[in-house]
Write a structure and sequence with these properties.
By secondary structure, this protein is mainly α. It has a domain of 79 residues. Helix content is 66%, strand content 3%. It is built from 4 helices and 2 strands. A hairpin with a 2-residue loop joins strand 1 and strand 2. Helix 3 runs antiparallel to helix 4. The radius of gyration is 20 Å and the shape is elongated. The N and C termini lie far apart (78 Å).
């Protein structure tokens, strides 16, 4: 009975570790595909800073036990990026993160369609 409980707890910790890694990986890939000027326009740290912080958070969540303080710091950094930086970047880039929206016209500008001054 004791062994089964420990096995279940170890499984829970394994799932938690995967979730923490997924959180850091999501932030890292999201930051990698954002434009550099969006970080400056949103008045956040630069893109390289966030890429380094999120890459360290991903590596730490992979290498260290959940009971260590380093993965907690990585989770905090990932949450700050996802909750604070990412929405600011989306707002600055028009919600599409620098990617061209599907269905938009080639004459669309940043504030709507360009109609040649008509």
């Amino acid at each position: 009975m004791d062994g089964m409980l420990m096995l279940g707890f170890a499984g829970f910790l394994g799932i938690l570790k995967i979730l923490l890694m997924a959180l850091a990986a999501f932030g890292l890939f999201d930051a990698a595909f954002r434009r550099e000027d969006a970080f400056r326009a949103a008045d956040k740290q630069n893109k390289v800073f966030w890429l380094i912080i999120l890459a360290i958070a991903l590596a730490v969540s992979y290498l260290f036990s959940i009971f260590s303080f380093l993965p907690v710091i990585g989770v905090i950094a990932s949450i700050v990026y996802i909750v604070d930086v990412r929405p600011a970047l989306k707002q600055v880039s028009g919600g599409n993160g620098g990617w061209r929206r599907r269905g938009g016209s080639s004459s669309d500008g940043p504030y709507g369609p360009y109609n040649g001054g008509r």
